[in-house]
Batch of 3 targets.
Target 1
Amino acid sequence: MAVVGGVGWGANWLTAYSRHERSNVGSLDFRNRLRIPALLDPQPGADGVKRYALELATGESEFLPGKKTATWGANGPYLAPTLRARNGDKVALTVRNKLPDDTTLHWHGMHLPPAMDGGPHQMVAAGDTWRPHWTVHQPAATLWYHPHPHGSTGSHVYRGIAGVIIIDDEHATAAGLPSRYGVDDVPIVIQDKNFNDDGSLDLTETTLSDDIAAIDNVGVLGDTILINGTYDPYHEVTTERVRLRLLNGSNARVYQLGFPDDRTFHLVATDNGLLRRPQGLTRLRLAPGERAEVVVAFKPGEKAVLRSFKPDLKVSFPTGRFTGGDDTFDLLQFRAAGKLKPSPELPATIAGAPAPIEVPKDAKRRKFEFVATRINGQAMDMNRVDEVVPAGAREIWEIERGDGRVHAFHLHGATFNVIEVLGEKPPVEMRGPKDTVYLPGTGTIKLAVAFDTLTDTEKPYMYHCHVLRHEDKGMMGQFLVVEPGSEDKVPRTLKSSAAEHGGGHH
Ligand code: C2O
Ligand code: CU
Ligand code: CU
């Protein structure tokens, strides 16, 4: 805080303040065809298991014309293939780590045994191979996967390892939503980057000191947008309606999605599943880690740009300016063909979509206060068990944003509904099945949480802020899911994770 005060700082502050309003609107030409991540949807083997092979490695990408960028990716230089499976499938993965660093691969939004979760306890040492496997047992949804090594999630994701997971089920198939992958059912991975003049990724997390208490340090906020690893992208539309599987794969940036003509699009799914009623919207906020499926209608021959407007972050001054609150970005241009193939009518209701989570009257309540980079005043400790939850529990989790900063709450291995936001009923777009949620204001949001029934007395799941710098700085906690009635019998200290598969986490 010594840096605050004095004429010099004042001038710097003004420069920094004005430099931190960013926009690319009007500066793109939409010259590059949108890349569509490869789809891995293997036939099951004789044993009924679907096998996926992923190889994490360094590579070289060309994003900006004529410039080479060193990147990380799975089965390619940047990002990762889309993995597809159905509810009920047995899946097995081979994750080969050819990166120079130890890392993990986490299946964000998946219900699976904690030992398979790919969180900070499942390190895969450089050169090693990890073989997780589980049975998919959750409704249709758009999930994603990314590294999760404690303290370095931000840099590993930023370098490029992230992919989409599509879970199908019979209800999603029957819903009549556009579903031809890459044609009218398109993954849209949104990321912001900073590039150095030589084309290399700028890994600098911030230009602001962590000591300036008034300002939230969220880490990387880029001035250049990549969609599916494509700079300056367009997508050709050949059908009347297109379903976008939106993923905010950015480290810290919150987007406020919409179209310049304010057209209505329909939200059909949130993070963890389909909505029972598609919801018409003109804007959709998407925080880091959140996903949404929307259906957009296009007119023959038109060009329409998906834009991120100034997000209403509901943070304190001047944090908003320094955390992207005044930024606007064109993301992707859609170019509709002169004649569009008919699409199924948008369903008014989606039969079989998950019902609201019912929580018993006497449900257990747990409170988590998010301030700066701490939860309930504590930093993440790999050996400390913060919460013990009985298997299959339905609980109320109250997440309080106790500061004026940008936070997004994420819970592993469970699904929740937001049931209250700062004392009010949540807006419709927050009410669907979720696993990640923006904390929209200083105050409390209440979640009805449905936990899974898989138990493990030694391997925890995580909950944390999905602003990756906050997570890396310790804004994370751990919970065990155990046999109901045994909550008080399990040790609250874990054996050193260094002894686990793949070696240490340092
Ligand atoms: Cu997307 Cu714990 O992570
Ligand atoms: Cu996760
Ligand atoms: Cu945070």
Target 2
Amino acid sequence: MIVYRNLIGGELRPAADGRTLDSVNPATGETWARIPRSGPAEAEAAVAAARAALPRWAAMPALGRARYLRQVADLFTRHADELARLETTDNGRVLRDTLHRDLPGMAFLWQLAAGQVLDAVKGDTVLLGPDALGLTRREPYGVVACVIPWNSPVSTFSAKAAFALAAGNTVVVKPAEQASASVLRLAELLAEVFPPGVLNIVAGLGEEVGEALVGHRGVQKVSLTGSTETALRITRTAGVKPMTFELGGKSPVIVFDDADLDRAVDGVTVNSIYTGNAGQVCVAGSRILIHRPIWAELIQRIAERAGKLVLGEPLDLATEMGPIVSREQYRRVVSYLELAEAEGAERVFGGRYGAAVVEALPGGYWVEPALYTTTDNGLRICQEEIFGPVAVALPFDTEAEAVRLANDSRYGLAAGVWTRDLGRAHRMIRDLEAGTVWVNTHRQMPPGLPFGGVKDSGYGHDAMIEYTREKAAIIQI
Ligand code: NAD
């Protein structure tokens, strides 16, 4: 049994009263590690440490901070395999995703933040006439609280912490209670890199240590990746602090009759909803909108492809789809399968769950890939984020109808379009209410492009500019 600790003020410490939470391997249902169950005392200590470290870190020349970030990049290169395996054990995301997709990008991301440090200190000069000069200074906010979800902890941690630190903030990270192990292992590694207090990590429940952290007066900015409901609660606790919110989605994937269907089939099954993290991906293409002329053919081909997906032990590189992260989330996904039946949606495939799905691992939280069809986008299964391997398909006749259906959602995180018509692709990019639109691809989030949502999917994105604020000065000469 591995017992992880918090990182506070450069020291690895258990929660003050020794309380822990179990970390459960979702493929087996067995507890394999323990994490601290921190509370207000740990939030207080972490913010105090971050505040104490702030003056020196913020005053350090930007290129000095970049040297620390490059050390983190090196560390990711050396420990990628270990971190990928930990994360897969902890949250069930298949190893082929964590090892081949998430971790290889991390060293690059920390290098990128190191390379962009000068953006954090660049201001503007405005001539206000012969005798006056205006200028702006970019400054760090101070202490930034980064609250992250369980579905890709290391990459969400990195996307926030790398830029917040590069910009001269000190940071307190709160990983998710369902999957903190990879981030707490990073705490052990990063304790050797940063000066004490610059980066702090406190694990525990959202309503305990999370609330205490975001509501703390010593925290000047909050960055959350999580659900819209949590964002609403944080807004109430944290008050008027500046926020970056990367939230949930119900992303449409629109397949037109002129699309390359061979690629589209893989695009809407393998790369969009069913594999990787069993649909527990914020940008999962959970609503598949299909042009009526290809409706029957595409539904049949999606069913054939989904029927061949390899489910099972996530640490096996041949496995394409793993379990649901926790018993609680499993129950939630199963409740949506029941709801789909109750709402009268038609089941094309799937619907089985529990031990029978992966007999070799009967204790795991397994849900088979499922597809439902309907013509009513108002159904709850079309409107609510399920966060599991459950998609719903709807037919459409015209481009305008596809846009109307796609935008008929409280969310606006991402959208996918499959077409060979360049004009149509551009019209869809223009008209879809989404932070990212993919054309003939899905689930690509390359560093260098902004990633974030519109509507209830949040605002802002993890980039250097979001972790600095601008001050204006006017000088009369
Ligand atoms: P969640 O909102 O339940 O939890 C996210 C984090 O917030 C956790 O660390 C949790 O402990 C913390 N938290 C919960 N309540 C809190 C409170 N009152 N105060 C402070 N912190 C609190 O989300 P989850 O279940 O971990 O992750 C799934 C959600 O995250 C989905 O909605 C998914 O779409 C979203 N997500 C979005 C993105 C994105 O980039 N847009 C990426 C991944 C996940």
Target 3
Amino acid sequence: MTTDSPKTYAIKNYGCQMNVYDGERMAEMFAAQGMTETNDRNAADLVVLNTCHIREKAAEKVYSEIGRLRRKDGADPIIAVAGCVAQAEGGEISRRAPEVNIVVGPQAYHKLPEMVAAVARGERSVDLDLPGLDKFAVLPKRRKTGAMAFLTVQEGCDKFCTYCVVPYTRGAEISRPFAELINEAKALVDAGAKEITLLGQNVNAWEADGQDLGTLIRALDRIDGLARIRYMTSHPNDMTDGLIAAHGDVEKLMPFLHLPVQSGSDRILKAMNRSHTRDSYLRIIERVRAVRPDIALSGDFIVGFPGESDADFEDTLSIVRDAGYAMAYSFKYSPRPGTPAATMDNQIANEVADDRLQRLQTLLVDQQTAFNATTLGRTTDILLEREGKLLGQLIGKSPWLQSVHVVAPGLNIGDIVTVDITETGPMSLKGEMLMKVAA
Ligand code: SAH
Ligand code: SF4
Ligand code: F3S
């Protein structure tokens, strides 16, 4: 096949915020080449599926989406599969879905323009190198952002939890240099960002020249115009003293901590190769709460890991009660090809895992509802991020990452406003506007 060079592109992101960040960088690169973005995947000349391999369902979505991209008139787009399914399945994708023209891993997407040119010449193009940080030197400067921006500071994972594909799809832990990150943060603020969320598969493993994430956060704190800093996802073993201290004295660092524990049973944590225990996790939470008592805790949980007994699952329910979560993500264990857990004995029956997931989620929703209720009557700042369904309604985020609905004339996305919290529910809150803090 030879085609004209594509003029329009569409990017569909699956999975975590790291993919959202990568998708934004791809878009900036295509824009720099004079291409135009379209939201209509059925009209775009180039479609990038930026994929996730974390659970079976996530990976399967890609193949059904590829099928849907076929066009009746035969004018099929150039299809690029990027992200973690590309890295994990590689050439297999081209065999299963011959209409895919490009397969590109999460650390090689800066080569997309030349790969697209190769396809236009009639070639198929595959690049699954994991060169680390090469892409950042090539990608264009940040010029476009929403009020809430993502900034990847760290890539990859060395932890090798026995259920997880990330160490294979994203490669080894590697940190971007300090000065480069400060420059990117400043460019984002110049382009309109009020809040920056630092991203990494293990974001708190970031370190450069002996500095830890706490030091980076303190440096970002000094950027004028940046109002809020967040980070995710963190690992219990990388919660340094410096990072915990930053929660106590950096005002821009929002009172929110996403710290996955996965299970409350030491036996299961060991089989997962989590390298922390139930108690060591709870002690970290205690230390963070000592310096920032109002911190909202968030977590990830897996139920139905191989060998998980009723007693192990009860331990997970009890760590949820002991730690107290403001919000959390919980998943049914999904065996992933190539991971040690996939071939462990005692895989758990689906119905048992379903039942456990339901019980855990009921408890987590109760906790989330209770946490939200603690903010009733409070006066707090929210950063407006999108329009609501009602006329004149905007939705913003509280410091604790809750969605707050507010109706008030003259407000814009990106404004920070002070509100009274007048109503709370399980998923969101309502606020009454008091005054505008920053526009
Ligand atoms: N680096 C982060 C999270 C990475 S993946 C951490 O270690 O906490 C996001 C979440 O997906 C994980 O926290 C875990 O809860 C879930 N997950 C990962 N692999 C999974 C699998 N095979 N089955 C079900 N859930 C999984
Ligand atoms: Fe996966 Fe564990 Fe690494 Fe998180 S720490 S990305 S769960 S291997
Ligand atoms: Fe998925 Fe890859 Fe993120 S597997 S969760 S997109 S790191």
